[in-house]
Amino acid sequence: MNGFFLLIPFLLVRFGLLSALDRRVIGRAAHFAPMAGRERIAYWVYQLANAAIFVYLCFLRVRIEAAWPFYAGLAGYACGLVLCAASMADFAAPSEAGFSSGGLYHFSRNPMYVSYFLIFADCALLMRSLALFAMVFVFQAAAHWIILAEERWCV
Hints:
The chain has 6 helices and no strands. The radius of gyration is 16 Å and the shape is globular. By secondary structure, the chain is mainly α. The longest helix has 25 residues, at 130-154.
């Protein structure tokens, strides 16, 4: 199976579910906090890594076989989708102040980023691709700088 097909459930949850819950929330989810210094570089690294992951997945194939990497990757990918769906539902129902603090956001300020990491890292495991995992690592490292900008902006 082509790796592109793993993006379909992710995109349906990320954009379809969020749109179904509250169309106005999509703009809030797509908003990036004002960034300074290295955060601007991280933003572009994040965007390029995201694009690279999406494009590279189109050239990879899922290695479906009865082996632990396949089962672990499939379980992690499914958990990532569930976490992403739950974080989208929680994000779509912010407090009166405009912040999401219920559900998963009670435990983590960044459950969406955690879910993206789980989904993409487990895609790398399902494909058994070190190159894809390296892209996911760069993506997640850049996300750290974006999270710092978001936290500063929220304060």
